[in-house]
Write a structure and sequence with these properties.
Layout lengths: L17 E4 L2 E4 L4 E5 L2 E2 L8 H16 L11 H10 L1 H9 L5 E5 L5 H6 L6 E6 L2 H13 L5 E5 L12 E7 L8 H9 L2 E12 L5 H13 L8 H4 L5 H12 L9 H10 L2 E7 L24 H11 L9 E8 L1
Parallel strand pairs: 5-6, 5-8, 6-7, 8-9
Antiparallel strand pairs: 1-2, 2-3, 3-4, 9-11, 10-11
The structure holds S-adenosylmethionine.
Length: 331
């Protein structure tokens, strides 16, 4: 199963090539990375001891709370329906060409990885540090014979992937759980081909404010006010998924919040051309009901407009976690 992508994999420590040797991947340094339950275990530590301590804490958390939940998603059709119901999923699927190599960094249980892999001509790789999450994604891919979808255990700060491997790299809902999101972005960008697209999804500094208040309230009052969270009130989400949501949003050991202009600065400094944002960050963009061509260049607006829009997000995307995504093209 790994033969078609072995040229895209690297030893996460010395970045040299890996070879398949039975039930392991072997590095040129003769280190063996086992393949357990169908998943190559290529997890290597983050560089500094302090950052590695936090990474381990996050890994333990996501080994217990596999996110997002899979309950009820028992066929490709159901997965497709769910992903397409979110505008972002539908637009992303439409934007990614059929022959693309797609990398999802921090794929969690791999719902997006599997969804994008439903186009069998794409090569789709999901990397996460949580083995428990990856097993759920891999079980789905194996059950439905999705041979173009691959899951690897790895660390975003020591990725087991060759530089310039990906046409499209997605990292959503992840970097804000790491000690240094900007350097995470910079390391991931190396894995994108020149001219390829990177999509970064982060908690928004403004849209996250109501959740911050609720978090404090819940800490003081227990479950009494849980209905203040729009997601916990939803009737179309079952109890176990709500538990996972609650843990991810309110009990997470580490998160940071980010603004649109901050991420645009990351893009500018790294020579990444801004393409689009979800939600939109300027006027003059086709209305969301018409759909956004994520990989086409959109107006990026100015700082004042961004502040106004992000304040508006307090009343829109805040209820579902306050996550915004920026897409950019690598020079
Ligand atoms: C909130 S979940 C998001 C999952 C998925 N991207 C989504 O949007 O549904 C965050 C994921 O990031 C992963 N993660 C956090 N830090 C990581 C790191 N340093 N390396 C690899 N994965 C990491 C966690 O294990 C977890 O599965």
């Amino acid at each position: 199963m790994l033969e078609p992508i072995i040229h895209l994999l690297r030893d996460p420590v010395d970045l040299r090539q890996l070879k398949i040797a039975g039930d392991a991947l072997v590095a040129e340094s003769y280190v063996r990375y086992p393949i357990l339950e169908g998943i190559p275990r290529l997890l290597a530590p983050t560089r500094t001891a302090k950052e590695e301590t936090l990474r381990r804490k996050m890994q333990e958390f996501y080994e217990r709370h596999t996110f997002p939940g899979y309950d009820g998603i028992d066929s490709p059709g159901v997965l497709m329906d769910k992903a397409r119901r979110s505008n972002f999923g539908a637009w992303l699927d439409r934007a990614i060409p059929p022959m693309a190599t797609v990398l999802e960094a921090g794929c969690g249980t791999g719902q997006m990885t599997n969804f994008l892999g439903l186009v069998a001509t794409r090569t789709v790789i999901g990397v996460d540090q949580s083995a428990a999450s990856l097993l759920l994604g891999n079980e789905f891919a194996e059950r439905f014979g999705m041979r173009n979808v691959h899951f690897l255990q790895g660390n975003i700060f020591a990725m087991p992937i060759a530089e310039r491997a990906a046409d499209v790299l997605i990292c959503s809902g992840v970097l804000h759980h790491t000690p240094d999101p900007r350097s995470g972005f910079e390391s991931l960008l190396k894995l994108v081909k020149p001219g390829g697209v990177i999509l970064i999804g982060l908690y928004n500094r403004y849209a996250r404010i109501p959740l911050g208040w609720r978090k404090m309230l819940f800490r003081m009052t227990g479950r009494a006010f849980h209905r203040l969270d729009a997601h916990l009130r939803r009737k179309d989400v079952d109890a176990s998924k709500k538990e996972i949501w609650f843990a991810d949003q309110y009990r997470n050991p580490h998160e940071s919040w980010h603004s649109v202009d901050e991420v645009l600065r990351w893009f500018d400094d790294a020579g990444v051309e801004f393409l689009s944002a979800v939600p939109a960050i300027s006027s003059g963009v086709a209305g969301e009901e018409n759909g956004i061509s994520l990989f086409q260049k959109h107006p990026r607006g100015g700082a004042m407009e961004h502040v106004a829009r992000q304040l508006g997000w307090i009343f829109t995307i805040s209820g579902e976690g306050g996550l915004f995504v920026l897409a950019g093209r690598k020079a």
